[in-house]
Design a protein that fits this description.
648 residues, alpha+beta, Heat Shock Protein 90, Ribosomal Protein S5, domain 2, Rossmann fold, 4 domains, 5-stranded mixed beta sheet, 20 helices, 35% helix
């Protein structure tokens, strides 16, 4: 007899109310995105943003972030200090309200802040909710106020006065809850990179970062803000002009625009910010910038008869090789974001304001700087001619049954059968041996295999002409079928995913870096659209000596220990030194099958970091590369030649 399954009851008693900050602890990813290292550092940004909002409003010019030896982190500013009086509605101190109640704060109107980054009012309270403890000290009105929370925001003491002071500002110290996060280890580089970006955007405000664990200190201070930001981004590029900086204030919106052109760069790099927050998905301010730029350049070109044909310059031609930053300060009453992530600006006024600023100021600048103007128009016309020629060549190729092959191509590609390109995957594989295994283990309908012959060239130190003469890159360009450089169109790609699959060793990592450098320089839209991936093959296979059907894979030393316990003795450990050591079925089930594999999607989260890393790791200055490796690579000795270990 089958027991009747008990049906769940749904009535008024089924409704739970999570009091205070319990909802944040129950669903942390809803508030900080994840519980990995990204979410961990989001706690820092929430507190730092409050300090930045004070400085942005003109209160204080020093922000200090300290990573303490006990794993906690503190943020100190010299602002006005969080108010400590009793809130007339909540009947508790304003300080307690800020740290223990969601959607509380002084940024919902323009009474306290003309413009601010933290607008949801959940920042400080979310950090508190996800911390083992949070300690806040306020210097205000001649007094030192103190309050402490523990175990996810539970108040330890009421607001107390510790003494008198002439200082002003707020000090917040917190330690993330290890029960919430996969790791509570703050990353020095991550924090420094974020604060350096903030220092560029908030010129003449000093950011100090200290790490008591490693006895490190770094300071960021910029007199010229965005100008210095652009100069650092383009430090190793052959540029057409010095950085151009426009500033204006219109319709209650403050606009700062900085831009510079580079030769031999086929990409457009446009970074935009609103109230010091990166708008990764663009928005109305980016539309306004592009429209104003295109109109100003075309009007100057036409007015000075610099166009050989009557065809206007396309915006893409004008923006080739352009690095630009658009930063806006918008009052709360006008601020609109699309979606929950603040990634895309929706403020209608921003488009008109930015377009007018860019058009009027650039028009004047071009008239006053004729040499630059003529050189810019020439660069844009050259881009236009190259684009038109590439389009004609593509059309001729599509219309011809026999296409002349000018590039020397390898014959190693094993294509996918499907013509439904977005569903297809291209595996770029290290070596013929691994290529043969991957070919046998692939899904023939949607997966293509392209083995590499040796290591690709370093495209950071050669010309495009040299790159095109390389058989491996010529084959890769032809295989993807979407063009190259300025004429690359991601929508024309024959593959929705391009997956780099190499051995899990230093040579494999080097090949990954060389390929990513190529994609970054010549097919960057593939990275920006999330179409480039790195496969993650396992390091070990643990199998039962007495039962071959019982086995498991491990991707790390920690996981290996776990799998050994699960399999039980006696066991055998196979170490995969390379992809070629796996059989087709093993490679398929661990690395190629979409239902079981793990892929790392490559993205550009911080353009400044990416530009500097590519320059350091792939550039010609060996001393910079050596210094970075010594500071960032852990040379822990491990025996890479152990292939099998057996246990009794």
């Amino acid at each position: 007899m089958i027991a009747e399954q008990k049906k769940p009851i749904y009535n008024e008693d089924s409704i739970d109310v999570l009091e205070g900050l319990l909802g944040v602890r129950k669903r942390p990813a809803m508030y900080i995105g994840s519980t990995n290292t990204t979410g961990l550092h989001h706690l820092v940004w929430e507190v730092v943003d409050n300090a930045i909002d004070e400085a942005m409003s003109g209160y204080g010019d020093l922000i200090t972030v300290t990573i303490h030896k006990d794993g906690s982190l503190s943020v100190q500013d010299e602002g006005r200090g969080i108010p400590t009086g009793i809130h007339k509605t909540a009947k508790v101190s304003a300080l307690e309200l800020v740290f223990s109640t969601l959607h509380s704060g002084g940024k919902f109107t323009d009474k306290s802040y003309q413009s601010a980054g933290g607008l949801h009012g959940v920042g400080a309270s979310v950090t508190n909710a996800l911390s083992e403890f949070l300690d806040v000290t306020v210097y205000r009105d001649g007094n030192i106020y103190h309050m402490r929370f523990e175990n996810g925001g539970h108040k330890v003491n009421d607001l107390e006065i510790l003494g008198k002071t002439t200082r002003h500002g707020t000090l917040v110290r917190f330690k993330p809850d290890a029960k919430i996060f996969s790791s509570i280890d703050f990353k020095w580089d991550t924090i420094c990179n974020h604060l350096q970006e903030s220092a560029f955007l908030l010129k003449k405000v000093r950011f100090v970062v200290r790490d008591e664990r490693q006895n490190l200190e770094q300071q960021f201070y910029y007199e010229n803000g965005l100008k210095e930001y652009i100069e650092l981004l383009n430090a190793d590029k052959d540029t057409l002009n010095s950085v151009i900086l426009f500033e204006d204030y219109s319709n209650d919106i403050k606009v700062e625009i900085a831009f510079q052109y580079a030769f031999k760069d086929y990409n457009e790099s446009l970074l935009s910010y609103v109230n010091n927050l990166r708008t990764k998905d663009g928005g109305t301010h980016e539309f306004g910038f592009r429209a104003g730029l295109t109109r100003a350049v075309n009007d100057y070109a036409e007015g000075n008869n610099l166009l050989r044909s009557k065809t206007k310059l396309d915006g893409n031609d004008i923006r080739e090789g352009l690095t630009a930053i658009v930063s806006l300060k918008i009052p709360e009453a006008k601020l609109e974001f699309e979606g929950q992530t603040k990634g895309k600006l929706g403020t209608p006024d921003a488009m008109a304001v930015v377009q007018n600023v860019m058009y009027s100021k650039l028009t004047y600048y071009l008239e006053e700087n004729k040499e630059f103007a003529v050189n810019l128009i020439k660069k844009c016309v050259d881009s236009q001619n190259a684009r038109i020629a590439a389009r004609k060549a593509k059309e001729e190729a599509r219309g011809s049954k026999k296409v002349k092959q000018e590039m020397i191509l390898s014959d190693k590609l094993t294509p996918a059968q499907s013509k439904d390109y977005p569903l297809n995957e291209l595996f770029i594989v290290e070596g013929d041996s691994a290529g043969g295994t991957a070919k046998s283990g692939r899904d023939r309908l949607h997966q293509a295999i392209l083995p590499l012959r040796g290591k690709p060239l370093n495209t950071d130190s050669i010309t495009m002409e040299q790159m095109l003469k390389n058989t491996e890159f010529a084959t890769l360009i032809n295989t993807i079928g979407a063009g190259i450089g300025a004429n690359f169109e991601a929508s024309d790609s024959k593959y929705g995913k391009i997956i780099i699959m190499t051995d899990a060793d230093t040579d494999g990592a080097h090949i990954q870096t060389l390929l990513l450098t190529f994609f970054y320089h010549y097919m960057r839209p593939l990275i920006q659209k999330g179409m480039i991936y790195v496969a993650v093959p396992p390091l070990y296979r643990v199998s039962k000596e007495t039962d071959s059907a019982k086995f498991a894979y491990a991707w790390s030393e920690v996981e290996l220990e776990t799998q050994k316990k699960k399999i039980g003795t006696p066991y055998r450990i196979s170490r995969f030194k390379g992809l070629g050591e796996m059989n087709a079925n093993q490679l398929k089930e661990t690395t190629m099958d979409p239902s079981t594999r793990t892929l790392i999607r490559i993205s550009i989260e911080d353009p400044l970091v990416v530009e500097r890393r590519v320059s350091i790791l792939m550039g010609k200055d060996a001393s910079l590369r050596k210094k970075w490796v010594e500071e960032n690579v852990d040379f822990t000795l491990k025996d890479p030649f152990i292939k099998e270990i057996t246990s009794g």
